[in-house]
Structure formats: C-alpha cells, structure tokens
Amino acid sequence: MTICFKGNSFKYETEAIMKLFLPVDNFRFVYDDVVTDGDFALISVKEENEFFRLEVSVSLDGKKAVMKDSIAKENGFSSCEFSLCRMLYKCLYKITGKAQPWGCITGIRPVKEVNRLIEKNMSREEIFSAMKEKYFISDEKLNLAYKTAVTQEKLLKIPKKSYSLYVSIPFCPTRCAYCSFVSHSMDSAQKLIPQYVEKLCKEIEITAEYAEKAGLTLDTVYFGGGTPTSLDSEDIDKIMKTVAKCFTLSTIREYTVEAGRADTITAEKLVVIKENGGNRISVNPQTMNDSVLKTIGRNHTAEQVREAFSLARKIGFENINTDLIAGLPSDSLDSFKNTVEEVLKLNPESITVHTLTLKRASSLFANAKQVSDDDVAAMVAYSVDRLCKIGYNPYYLYRQKNTLCNLENVGYAKEGKESLYNIFIMEEAQTILAVGAAASTKLCDAKSGKIERVYNYKFPYEYINRFDALMQRKNEIAEFYKKYPIE
Ligand code: SF4
Questions:
Q1: Which of 70, 251, 281 minimizes the C-alpha distance to 164?
Q2: Per residue in 156-169, pLDDT tens?
Q3: What is the pTM of this model?
Q4: CB 62, CB 95: distance < 8 Å
Q5: Where do the domains of the chain lie, and which CATH numbers do they carry?
Q6: If you count Cβ atoms within 10 Å of the first and of the last residue's Cβ in the chain, which end, N or C, has fewer?
C-alpha cells in the first residue's frame, strides 16, 4: 500500500489510522507525488483563498472511496490533520466494512478525553454523542470509558503538592515470549545486579533531595519492572530500606511492589516487602492454563500462582492484583473464561486484563498460533461483563499500538481497592519521580496542564556506566518547579 501526501506530511497520525485496518509494516510513503496504481491512499491539502481544501482517496483491492472537505484557514493548518484522519477512517470503513471498536481515536488515553468532558459538566448523553460524532467509537467502548471515568472522578482529587515515586527493576527470571520490554533475564544480568542496586539506591537518595527542595509530599510508591521479586530478598530489603530512609512514608496512601511472576515469590521476599511498608502487590498469572504458560515461556504453573497467592494472604497482604492477558497464542475462548473463573476463586482485590500486543521485539511474532480476532474480542467482552457484574469496576484504561483487534487494557478493582498510582500515571494527573533504568520521570503542573518528561537510560549497563551524567538530568526537576511553583 502506497500512502501519498500532497501539500502535507501528516504521516504519524494517518499511518496510525491505516494500521487500524491493514497489517503493520505494509506501507510505502511518498511525498508530493501521486501514485495511483495498485493499492494506494492519497492524503491531500490544497490552499484556496480562505480555505484548506482536503481530499482523501483510497483504493484497496479494487475498491475505491473518496472524501472531500474544507477547513477555514483561520483554524490553522494543523487542524487539517485530525479532519484528514476522520476522512481516511471513513474511506477505509467504507471499503472494508470493518468498524473499529475505538473508532478513529488513536491515542492511548481515551478516558482522559471523557474526564475533560465531565469537567465541563456535560451529561452522559452529551459525552456519548460528542465522542461518537468526533471519533466514531462504539457504544460498548464508550460505556467502558465512561464507567472508568466515573470510578476515577473522586480518586482524581489529588492533594496539590503530592507526587509518586516509581522504582524500576528491569530484570525478570526469564524472558516471556511476548515481551517487548527492555527487561533482562537474570542469567544475562546477574553480574550487573550488585552495581545496579548500588546506583539505584544512590539515585533514590538524590531524588529524595530534589523532592524535598521542591516542597513535594510523597503520595504513592510503585516498584515495577520487569519483575522486582526477581531480585533476592537482601537486595529488595536494601532498596526498600533506602526508600524508607530517604522519604517520609507516613504520608503515603499506597505502596505497591509488583511481585509479578509466581516463580519469583517466596515467603522471605513477601515478609521483606511487608516489613518495609509494601501494602499492595501483584501476582500475575497472565493465564491459568499450564500449556499456554508454557507456550509463552513462563516457567511456572497455575498451581504455583495459587500457592504464591495464598502465601501472600497468610503473610497479611490485603490488596493483591492479578494481571491477565487476552489473546495469548494457543489460548482459546473457553480456556480464557476458565482463567477468569480460576482467578476469581482467589478473590483478588483487583484484576487487570490486557489485550496481547505484538511488538517487534517479541519472539511470538513469527511462529505462534494466533487466536482469531473474533475470539480475542469475545475474551475481552467476557472479562468486561463478568467482572463488572460481580463488583469489579473499571478504574484505569489505556491502549497501546499493535494490540490485537485494536482493543484495550483495563484495570478492574473492588471499590476502595483501585491503585492510585495506575490512575495517576495513566491520566497524567500527578508528578511521578522515577528511578532506575528504563524509568521516566513525568513532571506535571495541574494548573497549566504542562507535562515534562525526563528519561533515564534504558539498559542497566548504560544506567550503571553513565550514572553521573544521568544524575545531571535530575536538575530538570528543580527547573520545572521553578517555572511552575506549587501554590
Ligand atoms: S514478566 Fe513482564 S517484563 Fe518480564 S519478561 Fe515477562 S512480560 Fe517481560
């Protein structure tokens, strides 16, 4: 498929729309030249007096669709981009007959838009009608986004000076086949771990100083990865003790450690987490089907998940999350339903249902038997229905690129057990100071809506070797709060 741009180069968003309908990586881009043989899409903007004249024409498998529109120049050239995307969506829908569940919304945070409309005091009906008109979202997905926004409403009332701390542990016992994260398996990373822990503790100290100088108050702590419990209990203890020493934990409302994979969870580690203030953990089965676990390269069984879960309960954890994935290769609709039922028997406080994302780095991309689109959609629909009916409310939702059927990831929780950190990061509602390799700090000014990011190096060896240079970047925290002082 050739995509031709005439009078514009709005590649990023138009490509995202194309990917909703056509396989990834199939595009050739041409600028200021028109190719009209074979399959093509023409995205054109022409200036004419006081108007931008827009045209989108698509030819695919011998079928054609054309749309034209005009935008007054006073709206600015950049306003053409979204109109072109809508036109392209309509052309592709006309040709393929496939409506997309999330319509032409390509961003990862659809709930943010709903929250914005709620803040304007718009009614549910007005929001539905505005979102449908603008993005062509299905009723089913609008319902889900709206419910999520309603759950978030009271939780988004955040104390002004508060912030969250994210601690990155980018190691895992082995690499899952579907993983595209920079996580390192323990075999390859073992020798890096002592230096990593040392630098991480140093960065925690430095970050605490910046937070104190900016007058911030710690609200939530989140240890993520990777799999934080792939470290041994001494290292977990050392890092958590450093956090306790450098920050005031008496103000925090939530302290999560993603225990993650059952094969890394031991009584010793859970006790360390609990004694150091951790009050929320994740035990993430992804599936309770042993053969699917094997296919995706996770060296544990469903029984080990049950054991890890019950161990955590015995040690006193009253807030446990479980992550599931819809669409794992070799899974089936019945087996996914069974996974949901098996997880419900554990009675977790929250359940996060992801839809599988296949990215380049994933080794499943080439050789695994995929679940059909209809079954992936049915899995996701089942989880929404089943969980909502028994009192798990959706409380955060996000989308990712290259997700099967362009579906979403949703966190469900019993009332009062929603993870604040997950909401804050997803809705970009609070500053997150992040430490460790692959972590990114997000500085948010609620008043102006301004957001700035400071990225740490991705890989542990870079993080270790270039630590001093990296710490220079921390000054951006101070600079940000000079520009946007908290009143
Ligand atoms: S546990 Fe998560 S981060 Fe680790 S390898 Fe598996 S998918 Fe990747």
A1: 251
A2: 999 888 999 999 99
A3: 0.92
A4: no
A5: 2-96 (3.30.160.100), 110-145 (no CATH), 158-472 (3.80.30.20)
A6: C
